[in-house]
Amino acid sequence: MRPVWTIRRTVLLLLLGVSLAWLVVFQVLWVPRVTRVVITSHTEELQRELDVIIDAILPFLLSRQFGAITETLSSIETRNANWIGIELHDQTGRRLFPLEERVIAMGGSRIMIDQSIALRGSQFGSLKAVIDLTTTLDRVQAETRRLGLFTSVAVIIIMALLTVAIDRLVTRRVSVLAAAADRMKNGDFEARLPDPHPDELGRLTLSFDAMRRQIRRQTDALQSARIEAETALTAKSQFLARMSHEIRTPLNGVIPVAELLADTHLTDEQADHVDTIREAGTALLSIVDDILDLSKFEEGRLELNPAPYNLSDLVNGVVRILRVTAESKGLRLEVDIAPDLLGVYLIGDSDRLRQVLINLTGNAVKFTRTGSVCIKVARTICDTAREGLCISVIDTGIGIAEKDHARIFERFEQAEGGRNRRFGGSGLGLAIARSLIEAHGGQIRLTSEEGSGSRFDAMLPLNLATDIPQQVASETVLDSDLANGRALVVDDNATNRKIIAAMLRRLGYRTEKACDGAQALNMIMSERFDIVLMDMHMPEMDGLEATRHIRSLTGLRARTRIIALTASVLEEDMRRCQEAGMDGFLSKPVSRQALAAALRAS
Predict the structure, then answer these.
(1) Which among 560, 520, 518, 525 is positioned nearest to 539, based on CA atoms?
(2) Which of 132, 310, 323, 400: CA 20 to 30 A from 117?
(3) Are 438 and 461 in contact (CB under 8 A)?
């Protein structure tokens, strides 16, 4: 944007201002001063002339030669055109000249001098004279104004020449430098610079050019570094996504099989082995999920999905998940929800808040040997003086030393470090919990002493829901409600097909299998299925392409329910499934509860 007050415009306005000021000074101050000087000068001259006249007429006055006095004074009035009149009085005040009284109007440019006539201390009368300086003053003022105009023109010419000189030597070069700086601000480093004269602006130009070259080198280096960082970040994301996919695929043959085994008739020892397998698989899956969440935070791609949720149901659901683990250690898992928050619906991402609460409560259970773990929910006042929500997890565990309070919220850090630590874990849970709380506009605080338990307070804005969702009549849907359906399992992995089909049969479905999208498309065109579980990544024809082909069919087959079945859990994968026309998204490894929930929701 071009500035309004440029140097050139400022100099021109300064020129105009100086010229106007000079004219004002002449008209307002100088002309009256010259007039006063002229009047003073004439007054002094008139006094001297009156002294001469008095010396000339004093002998006539002493000898009482009044005719000579009249002749002398009349001659003086005649020779001086600007003398209005002369009056002579004796010591008694009697008029001696002129004999007849005159009326002389004063004011304007007329001045009057009254001089006494004395000799050796004796008064013989007075002589008064009035002169008119109008013509003289008009001439002087006219000359003064002409002089003022001439000097003003001279000042304007000098200022104009000075302006041209400043423009050539300073303004233009500064303007070119300013334009180059503006273009450099927009990433253009090729703007023309003024010629480097051997003066201060020349040194400034050389310094600016050196600075510009240095900034350009640094900008190019930063651009290259940014591209490299983005490339590395993309490569890391792709690596994590691929590793997640590759790890989740075999886990689909561990966790679901362990769940299937747990439903069979096992001895106590066998059931213990199955639980160990399931817990180990779940722990590995949790680490994979934490690393993916960490990657999303680093890339700024984590998106919250705020929606109304029931606070009591959220807390009680976390307690149901962790109660068995707590009771197996002999711990009491307690809930303390303020009465005014029971059944209240809030706005937030309930899945992410559940993840935070599971992390905090799971850590409390893990690091507590005896006593209890309590989840306390109450209203509070946030730092912004707004009413907020405080969800506290309080335990009677080992506690955390004050020196470790900040460190445990860092990635891959735990209160117990080193090779002799007693508790496992990736050290990502608290870092992710803090990031999720901050993403909701809140903060997390720790109060703890070593050996005296810990208290984690998650402070959140209290966003009450205005549109409360309708309650479902029953949260429990029997597996028999899903029975008598016909399902098609599409996956290029034989183990996955076998496991998913077995889980579907436990839910009451009759199942068929297909090893790729092309085979599934042919089967759907010739047979009718109530549900299709479609893997995303398959050879020949993947699940997305197969889904698009199915949606392009006519009749009921085009509306066949399709659930994505994949080890990819990134948001872009879910979005691609939705865009292809799938009705749901189910990530591997698949649990029986998740499969049943997806079937009910589709």
Answers:
(1) 518
(2) 132
(3) no
Nearest by Cα to 543 from 569, 571, 505, 573: 573
Q: Which residues contact 429 (CB under 8 A, 6 or more apart)?
A: 290, 359, 362, 363
Which contiguous run of DSSP H or E holds residue 308? strand 307-310
| Residue where the block lists tokens 């201060």 | 200
Residue type, 372: S
Query: Residue 386 and residue 368: Cα distance in Å, rounded?
Result: 34
The predicted model gives 476-497 an average pLDDT of 72
If you average pLDDT over residues 131-153, what whole number do you get? Answer: 83
- The reply to whether 469 falls in a domain is no
Q: Tell me: do 329 and 412 sit in the same domain.
A: yes
Q: Is 470 domain-assigned?
A: no
pLDDT higher than 90, residue 376: yes
pTM: 0.48
Asked if residue 145 and residue 269 are part of one domain, the reply reads: no
**DSSP letters along 402-457, please?**
GGGTTGGGSTT--SS-STT-SS---S-HHHHHHHHHHHTT-EEEEEE-TTS-EEEE
Range of the domain at 567: 479-601
Domain count, the chain: 4
For 563-580, b/e burial (b = at least 16 CB within 10 A) is bbbbbbbbeebbebbeeb
Of the three residues 302, 332, 355, the one that is the final residue of a domain is 302
pLDDT at position 410, please?
Answer: 75
User: Helix, strand or coil for residue 579?
Assistant: helix
pLDDT of residue 383: 66
Alpha-carbon distance 257 to 403, whole Å?
44
Contacts of 362 (CB under 8 A, 6+ apart): 322, 325, 429
Measured on CA atoms in the order 580, 242, 517, 494, is the torsion positive or negative?
Answer: negative
Q: Mark 484-494 as b/e (b = at least 16 C-beta within 10 Å).
A: ebebbbbbbbe
- The pLDDT tens digits for 405-416 are 877 877 545 555
Q: What is the pLDDT of residue 512?
A: 92
Query: How would residue 318 be classed by pLDDT, with cut points 50, 70 and 90?
Result: confident
pLDDT of residue 246 exceeding 80: no
Task: Give the SS3 label for residue 3.
Answer: coil
**Residues 453 and 379 occupy one common structural domain:** yes
